[in-house]
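Fig. S4 source data, part A: sequence.
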Amino acid sequence: MDIKKELREAGQYLKSNQLAWGTSGNISAISDDGHMVITASGTYLANLNDDDFVICEIATGNYEGRRKASKETPMHTGIYRQRDDVKAVLHSSPFYTTLFACSNEEIISKLFIETMYYLENIAYVDYFHPGTQELGDAVSEQAAKANIIILKNHGVVVYDDSISEAIMRLETLEMACKMILKAKECSVKLNHIPDTVVKSFLEESRYKPRKNIK
């Protein structure tokens, strides 16, 4: 498995689908030998090459290579330390998701099939300056009980057992935020799926096996 190739393609996909912009995002994945491969500081996700990645030790955060690892390395390593099942982490600031991160609007998961599954567990952390250990620690604490973490006045971090599933989680989040906002703008009342139906859907694996949270 060529992790760098997968991450390059992921970066291009995020940018092409307005899930990331400029140098605001950073992405990582676990290599076959158990190291974290993460984008270097100041890279453009739409135009990554092999020199734009850094190899990191998850336990220590130490890295090798001529480039400096992303300043958000503490956030990525914190998630991997908490979750053995996680193999990919995406951090970005999509427009609608970031709008919700900068407000008190509720992100609703009881809307359609994908939101029931991918948005089941969302956590929030208060604003901390990017790249700080405080942000890394706050994210690490929430990672044990969520699959999406909204970073207030900053953006979002999502993670999953593959790069493709992490992208799907991010896309679902952004679509839900857009739908909720558009419904408000147009005075459309969204019908929520009943809690009993959501419970049945998740527990009986009517879409995909439910993610286990500690």
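Fig. S4 source data, part B ends here. Residues 3-203 form a domain with the L-fuculose-1-phosphate Aldolase fold (CATH 3.40.225.10).
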